[in-house]
Amino acid sequence: SIQPADRMAGLPEQFFAALVGKANARAATGRDVINLGQGNPDLPTPSHIVDKLKEAAENPLYHKYPPFRGFPFLKEAVAKRYKEDYGVDLDPATEVAILFGGKTGLVEISQCLLNPGDVCLVPDPGYPDYWSGVALAGARMSQMPLLAKNGFLPDYEAIPAEDLARAKLMFLNYPNNPTSAVATPEFYADTVRFAEKNGVVVASDFAYGAIGFDGRRPVSFLETPGAKEVGVEFYTLSKTYNMAGWRVGFALGNRKIVELLNLIQDHYYCSLFGGIQEAAALALSGPQRAVADLVSVYERRRNALYDALASHGWHAPKPDGSFFCWLPVPEGYDSASFANLLLEEADIVVAPGIGFGTHGEGYVRLGLLAPEERLREAAGRIGRLGLFR
Ligand code: PLP
Fold this sequence. Notes:
alpha/beta; Aspartate Aminotransferase, domain 1; Aspartate Aminotransferase, domain 2; 2 domains; seven-stranded mixed beta sheet; globular; binds pyridoxal-5'-phosphate
């Protein structure tokens, strides 16, 4: 019989794989399911990017193995975007790693930096893929609670001393999935001081960096003085350009960490298809109008959903960024039982907060990933359950 390696024992079923399976099973019964569960953008990639891929697919150069670590033009394009958007200088040759989606780097960084027995500080609630890398490295997690009263920012003073002594890596993610909070420059300045003092590497997950509402411009961790000395930022085209299926991501910043990620990637992949790299470079260096339009779409959806929910008695502060809504569950339910109720009684898929960690309990996450009329329809179905009067 097949005996898996011990390290596999720490890997649970991928949270979103399970959620998607549930939603699909429900839809397969013929029900009109509104899926706000997975963070999968529903809008298409802008057509100029798709056209570039079609054209580039004809280039025989790209039919061979791509160069290890990718084409320089893509690294240059992301470095230029960071300069333009955040005023951050990055050396494309040494401070940029191309990843197969941000997700691969977020898992691999733990394997690059953590030994068994080391501690990784993870936000709770937080994106579950951080845990997978820590489990595969045989390391241990120390949860940093993200509480509403602290603006969903971690309190570094509250980290248990024995965990801090062994901590080597910390994940941060703003605009935040799932709470939708946005970080301040002051928080990041504190973070650099904390990282320097305690010898902790910062992995800033900036997947939702482009999405800030009401005129907010989310700050990049790399804008903080000293940030490059202590960490890297993970950046992805998935959400900014509706390119989740293309699997293009980057690690940016600290040279040593970029080199480690490049090295581990050399063994797993040589790089992305060249045509994808060329189209990705165009996404970053071409017209950015589609990004601003996308943020307006999410902002209008947010307003439509929150106004409709409020009219049914479900009140919550509106998200500042990301495309997620983090809503408290009504009395008498926990996050899983409420998510189940919404699925069974209203054909709405949401992500239960407990899936993001113990401090996610008491909340559900709804994605702004359907047109406004569908979001209003969802709010109407929730209203008819009569739970919020
Ligand atoms: N980080 C966060 C917080 C996410 O929500 C996601 C995707 O949902 C990712 C990273 C993964 O991004 P990518 O598509 O680049 O792998």
